Amino acid sequence: MSSQLDVKEISRLSELHPKPSHLRYQYGTSGFRTLGTVLDSVLFRVGILASLRSKKLDGKTIGVMVTASHNPEEDNGVKLVDPRGEMLEASWEIHASVLANASTTSDLIEAIETLVRIAKIDLSKPARVVYGRDTRPSGPFLVASLRDGLAAIKAEPRDAGVVTTPILHYLVRAINTKGTKDAYGDDSEDGYFDKLSGAFKKLVAGKPTPPPLIVDCANGVGAGSISKISPRLDGQLKLLPQNTATSTPGALNNACGADYVKTTQKLPPSLANHLKANQRGCSFDGDADRLMYFYIDERNQFRMLDGDKIAALVAGFIVDLVKNAGLESELKVGIVQTAYANGSSTKYLAERLPVRCVPTGVKHLHHAAERFDIGVYFEANGHGTVLFSSGTQETLASHEPTTPAQSTALNHLSNLTQLINQTVGDALSDMLLVEVVLAHRSYSGFEWDSLYVDLPNRLVKVVVEDRHAFQTEDAERQLVSPKGLQGKIDDLVRRYDGGRSFVRPSGTEDVVRVYAEAAIKSQADELAFRVAGLVYDEAGGDPSARPKEFL
Ligand code: G16
User: Fold this and answer.
1) What residue ranges of the chain are covered by domains with CATH 3.30.310.50?
2) Whole-angstrom distance, CA of residue 215 vs CA of residue 244
3) How far is CA 511 from the centre of its chain?
4) From 3.40.50, 1.10.357, 2.60.120, 3.40.120, which CATH number describes the 318-428 domain?
5) Do 79 and 87 contact (CB within 8 A), yes or no?
6) Does domain 457-545 have CATH number 3.30.310.50?
7) Which residues line ligand 1 (CB under 6 A)?
8) Which string of b and e fits 147-184 if b means at least 16 CB within 10 Å?
9) Residue 138 C-alpha to ligand 1 middle, in angstroms?
10) What are the UniProt keywords, alphabetically (predicted)?
11) What's the gap in Å between 69 CA and the centre of ligand 1?
């Protein structure tokens, strides 16, 4: 392996992927995300960055996922995955943005050389990168740009094909731990499906088979996962996939999927004739890393069971298992949420275990959850997982149970470590986890829903000229800029019974988000639209274009 950059080859390839001069890119909450048509240069440069990151980490395999998740079909994006299957280390996000914004090929070469110098990258080390993409039409073209970036640094590529985001994260960890005592699983898609289905079957053995579960695949890559896992479940859970039209133009995430369910708080119209009273269903998002559950109650009303409800269900189950295994004094279970968590869920959980609140974005939740022996993290939008620390896994393996009940609980906990994708939120793994808990609790959707009653809430998007003018602190619960706006929001909130509201710039869309909750639905709506009106006016929005619902 040469210890020099092949500047001539990088330059030649870079000229094939010029940066549009009028655009600036930012590595945000989930990597780069924007219209698929303007991402060519970004993908090329991400290929270079991923290769350099691998060299920096002594040839460990880095992951690259080409997806825009819940965004509309015309968007696309890319994010990097670090060797343990986690999001890219935060200090490298800035390097990603610097490389993506170098105006010319010579600026790019200079940026690469600077990165090699300041990050002390040994260029003689190998570079290995595994990449995958979701079902978006722009995916193949963008993967070709990525491959040029990998070739420019002579990285060893591995094509994972069309996969869900969580599978790509799984593969990264499985590849990097292969042959070690921490081996995460076989480094193949089959390995992933076998691991999840094997653990699921052990956990539900002897339990009654639940009614068939409708799975809304958002017309995305999750559809393939459902067809691959179904035969492996041996009839212990029957899945009825819907919205599986992955090649129908415009269908992805359109009036379906987890984001649609959460933001509209409605059943996707395409499921209306499929879901019967008291039957459960769930929605994945476009890359299958988010999960929303729902059911139709006896009065034929749609009832949503979001990430907060999943957290309450799962955390309660794990706390009980830890207690039943006799490990209560050894293992500390904690939960991590964001400001979007419904106030009722936070109250319910805080009465039972420690709760932390962090800014939006998986990386924040993941890192906070790592501080517990067992950390449960879920965003209200359905993105989340459970982390078992390495110490916890050793405790589970070495603890000697003194009663049969302890032995059973210990076994369940060990199987959960296999069922749960601990690298990132995973709709498929989380769905199986929910079904396990419901089976053990003998809960229907109604009983699960009754754990606590959600406070009515409303989420509103405000399109502003510059969303970066909105800056927050205190886990996004307080605005520090524009100056004075937080005071006005506080004055409004005080007028609503049970009122709470916060404002933050989105990391994945060009909007500012407003969240509000109150004791009554009409009041939550009114508060949200009033705050949205304040935001719009403060941001200098055109009065003639002011959305009429903003108050
Ligand atoms: C991404 C992040 C999530 C975040 C969501 C929305 O999800 O991984 O942590 O909650 O974006 O973020 P924002 O409100 O900043 O737009 P995904 O599923 O789109 O990758």
Assistant:
1) 457-545
2) 10
3) 19
4) 3.40.120
5) yes
6) yes
7) 29-30, 69-70, 285, 289-290, 360-362, 379, 381, 383, 506-509, 513
8) bbbbbbbebebbebebbbbbbbbbbbbbbbbeeeeeeb
9) 20
10) Carbohydrate metabolism, Cell wall biogenesis/degradation, Isomerase, Magnesium, Metal-binding, Phosphoprotein
11) 8
Contact 423, 166 (CB under 8 A): yes
Q: Which of 70, 164, 289, 383 most suits a substitution to test ligand 1, by most atoms within 8 Å of the C-beta?
A: 383
Instruction: Check residue 498 and give left, alpha or beta (phi > 0: left; psi -120 to 50: alpha).
Output: left
Pocket test for ligand 1, best of 261, 337, 340, 362 (most atoms within 8 A of CB): 362
Q: How confident is the model at residue 508, as a pLDDT?
A: 83
Is 507 flagged in the annotation as binding?
Answer: yes
Q: Which of 15, 136, 120, 14 is nearest to 75 (CA)?
A: 136
What average pLDDT does the segment 45-50 reach?
A: 98
How many C-beta atoms surround the C-beta of residue 284 within 10 A?
Answer: 33
Is 91 assigned a catalytic role? no
- CATH code of the region 190-305: 3.40.120.10
CA distance 333 to 384: 15
> Nearest residue CA, atom 14 of ligand 1?
506
pTM of the predicted structure, to 2 decimals: 0.96
CATH 3.40.120.10 domain span(s) along the chain: 7-162, 190-305
Taking the centre of ligand 1 as the mean of its atom positions, its distance from the CA of residue 515, in whole angstroms, is 15
CA of 495 to the centre of ligand 1 (A): 31
| pLDDT tens-digit map of 106-144 | 999 999 999 999 999 999 999 999 999 999 999 999 999
Q: Which of 433, 427, 344, 352 is nearest to 388 (CA)?
A: 433
Summarize pLDDT for 164-217 with one digit per residue, the tens. Answer: 999 999 999 999 999 999 999 999 999 999 999 999 999 999 999 999 999 999
Task: For 157-196, give the DSSP string.
Answer: EEEEEE--HHHHHHHHHHHHHTTSTT--S-SSHHHHHHHH
Give the active site residue among 41, 69, 230, 429: 69
Q: Which amino acid is at 173?
A: R
DSSP reduced 3-state for 110:
helix
CA of 507, closest atom in ligand 1:
15
Going across the sheet that includes 128-133, the strands are 32-35, 75-81, 61-66, 128-133, 156-162
